[in-house]
Every structure is written in structure tokens, then in C-alpha cells.
Amino acid sequence: MTTADQRTAARTERDRQREEWALCSAAWRRHRRAFTDPGRAITEGMLRLAAPRPGERALDLASGVGNPALALAARVAPGGHVLGLDLSPEMVAEATAVAAEEGALNVEFRTVPDEGTLGVPDGSRDLATCRAGLQYMPDRPAAVRAVHAALRPGGRFVAMTLGAAERCVPFRLTNGIVSRHVPLPAVEPETGPGPVSLSSLDELTALLAEAGFTGIRTEVFEAPIFEAPDPASAWDLFTETAGPFLKLFAALPPETRKAMDEDAARVFAEAFPAGPVRPTGEILLACGTKPL
Ligand SMILES: C[S@@+](CC[C@H](N)C(=O)[O-])C[C@H]1O[C@@H](n2cnc3c(N)ncnc32)[C@H](O)[C@@H]1O
């Protein structure tokens, strides 16, 4: 049961997310290979669990610029289709442009007003994915119920989230850098949606079970999250794509930003002294089936 206050808080949170992801959507497209190529183990893990087949109709919630929607599109061809859904119209526009660039004809991207309103007929999809998306949603149970409704009986859903910041090198390093210059709670509230706010496998599996998914299988493993050729590029990648931090970075006095940049160059160089910056993180996967 959600109260009027909870609904208002959820709307405010979505407005914040929409604004933040709009600010970095072009950068996500520009930098997409820095995530998709090193992050292939994550996407492949999701696809292994979801087991897409040619001819199937898939749904990808919080699709960003198309990961894993575009990989799924290749797997359900010929004859299959992927619908990518995202809260941010700007992300949807970038994903649409990426799909056109890559010649993916069996994928379409659409904006959703909220995570519980997918605009998809009940029972119309064979499988669904959500990669690094649920943790940003204010009403996760509504999102998973909506995915469940969109699937046919026997349909599969695989969700991926990240482990806690201490187990995710990119967040451990960047939280450390940022918090030396500004108070961290200003950046990532301890409660509420954020990149590492759904870091418990029990919580993730409970979300699927409570929505009605059965036969839940899970995987936890360590995998690269992104790759950059050197420390300066790694920090640029982070400062251009980290939705929740972008407004904060834009508002920093130039001297604070300069000190943070220098700190970041030192921290990344110390952590990756011998070549490319390829930080790993703990990956949580959960896959459930809608009962027949
Ligand atoms: C970290 S990105 C992940 C994108 C992509 N799945 C990937 O793995 O590269 C998170 C995405 O979640 C979307 N998002 C945030 N809140 C959402 C919500 N309530 N409903 C749907 N999408 C949401 C954002 O717009 C953003 O595109």
C-alpha cells in the first residue's frame, strides 16, 4: 500500500533521475564501448540466464543507450523483437540513434512515465531484462510486478544490480575521491535510489519472488565495469556519465574541481599502475520464471 506522501516522494525522485540521466545521455552514447566491451561478461551472464531464442519478443527495462537491448536483438533474430524502455526521453533518443547506427532493425526504444507503467500488453513478451536499472527506481516492487504482467506464462526475467560500494572498485575509488572534497551524502544519499542501493542478493530475489516469479536462480561474480586507457580518461568517463554526480560537479567552484581532478589522477594511477584502468565490481544477477 503506498501512501500519498510515498507517491509524491517517488515522483520527486523520478524527476530528479530524469534530469540527471538527461545530462549524461549523450556521453553514454559517446562512451558506450567503454562500458559494453569490458562489461560483456555482465551482459553475457544475463543472456545466459534469460536464454533468448530466435523469434522471441523481449523487453529491456532501463535500457539506457541499449545495453543489453542491442545484444538481445541479435539473439532473438530472425523473427524476434526487442522493446527497450527508459524513464529518460534523452536516453531513448540516444539509444534509437545507436540502433540506427548499428543497423539493428528489430529493436525499438520508448519512454515510460514511471517504472510501473510499461505500456506493454499483458502476457505479450517472452523474456525481460533490467541491467543496472532497478536500483534507481523509487518503486522497485511496482517495476518487477509490471515486468511480470508483461510476460507470458513461462516467460523469464533477469535483473542485474551491483554489490555494495566497498565491493565495486569504481564506486569505492570515486566515492573516496569525491568525499575528500565535498560531503558524500550530498552526492549519494544513504537511503533512496542510487548505483549501489540494491546491493543485497536477498533483497533482489525477494523482489522477484514477491512479484510472482518462481524457480529463481542467482549468480554473483566479479567483472569489469568499464575500461579507460589511462587515469585521466577514466576520471573523464566517470565525470561525464555518472548521472547522480553531474549537477554536483557542474556546481563546484573551479578550484575545488581542479583539486578533485588532480586527486582522481593520483588515485587511479595508484590503483592501476600498469596500463589501462579496468575496475571490477561485484555483479548480482537474479533470474525468475513466470509460472505456467
Ligand atoms: C546505469 S543506466 C543503465 C543503462 C543500461 N541498462 C546499461 O546497463 O548500460 C540506468 C538507466 O536507468 C534509467 N532509469 C532510472 N530510473 C528509471 C525508472 N524509474 N524507470 C525506468 N528507467 C529508469 C535511466 O534513465 C538510465 O538510462
From TrEMBL:
| CDD domains cross-referenced by the UniProt entry | AdoMet_MTases
> Which keywords, in A-to-Z order, does the entry hold?
Methyltransferase, Transferase
Work out whether the entry's keyword set contains DNA repair: no
> Could you name the domain of life of the organism this protein comes from?
Bacteria
Q: Name one GO molecular function term.
A: methyltransferase activity
User: Is Transferase given among the entry's keywords?
Assistant: yes
Give GO terms for biological process: methylation
Q: Using the record's annotation, list all stretches that form the Methyltransferase domain.
A: 59-155
* Protein name as catalogued: Methyltransferase domain-containing protein
